[in-house]
Amino acid sequence: MNEPAVPSPAAGATVSAAPAPASDSGRTLLRVEGLKVHFPIKEGIIFERHVGDIRAVDGVSFELRQGETFGLVGESGCGKSTTGRAIVRIYKPTAGRVEFDGVDIASLEGSELRGMRRRVQMIFQDPYASLDPRMTAGSIIAEPLDIHSIGSKQDRQDRIRELLPLVGLDAAYGVRYPHEFSGGQRQRIGVARALALDPDLIVADEPISALDVSIQAQILNLLQRLQGRLGLTYLFIAHDLAVVRHISDRIAVMYLGRLVEVASSRDLNTEPLHPYSVALLSAVPIPDPAIEQGRRRIILQGDVPSPAAPPSGCRFHTRCWLRERLGNPEQCVAEEPVLRELASGHEVACHFGEKVSGSTEQGLVNRVRTSIAGSVSAAPPPVPGAS
């Protein structure tokens, strides 16, 4: 079944403006401290030997306030999806703490873990793989209620008929199977399933990346409407900064298992202070052929290092344009940078983050953002002196 075509954010669509940033006084709902998720590398058939680890997530820390949307972005393989799965305990953390409403999820087991999962749900990336093809849409949505023994059979049917219209589907669609829906409709079923238990936190793992571009804006607007109506808190994982910019209050940039920058959505998009963030922003497609043709991108050299053997010191130093400009200082190789606050609410893990401010590369990002301010809602104000 086809859905009406709607322009996507990447194609210049008008997506609902991001909600106002949450107040600093808001209650902290989720606190992640030193989260690590390592996957063992083993050799041998009969006698296995542990020869190393894939350090998918290697010391991630952040806070998520109630009612806000926290975006987590980075290249494929940086560990962002693994972070989300560790938070909902699909993966058990190797080390660190994941405090949800004051309780450490990482140490929970059995009935305590199951009780926590009623309040933390996940929207998966692929709506084709995350729905059981042998179950009807209604059965998929009711499954969380069955698992947690909530309500009678009639109560669950009533809940299905309530949730389907809430996510923009006809209540009669509950008897249909996943193959009878389009990609966008399948993802709406996934959203309805995540809402079935009235969760406080939803981890959205690239919920629109597998969808046709004409449907992406619909799902983004749906998530924003549901947040305003139900008071939801989102951890929104994506690799597309143009998408995350619209829906997030704050954004964290991840590289090779670690966070390299955390800032408000506006600050990150107008004044990025980490060389990697600047490079990512320079690659965002611009919905104006004249600007796109004449703009300059920052091309990172080399490949992403293996998470089994990350570089010493700063993990980005092997591809960093700023380090090369500064004459390859030894500190980048010898000392691992930690997140430090360079401006109010703006944290950067770079020894020379101050050098990015005012640089030609940052100016390029600012000029591009200013040039498209009229074509995208909630665009940042013009930068003084930018052409």
Q: Find the structural class using helix and strand composition.
A: alpha/beta
Number of E strands: 12
Overall mean confidence score, pLDDT: 86
Shape: globular
- Unreliable sequence segments: 1-25, 374-387
User: Would you state the CATH class of the largest domain?
Assistant: Alpha Beta
CATH superfamily of the largest domain: P-loop containing nucleotide triphosphate hydrolases
Distance between the terminal alpha carbons, to the nearest Å?
Answer: 46 Å
Gyration radius, in Å: 22 Å
Count of discrete alpha- or pi-helical segments spanning 4 or more residues = 13
What composes the largest sheet? 8 strands, mixed
Q: Could you please say which CATH topology of the largest domain applies here?
A: Rossmann fold
Helicity level? 25-40%
Please trace the helix and strand order, writing H or E for each element: EEEHEEHEHHHEHEHEEHHHHHEEH
Number of domains: 2
| CATH 2nd-level architecture of the largest domain | 3-Layer(aba) Sandwich
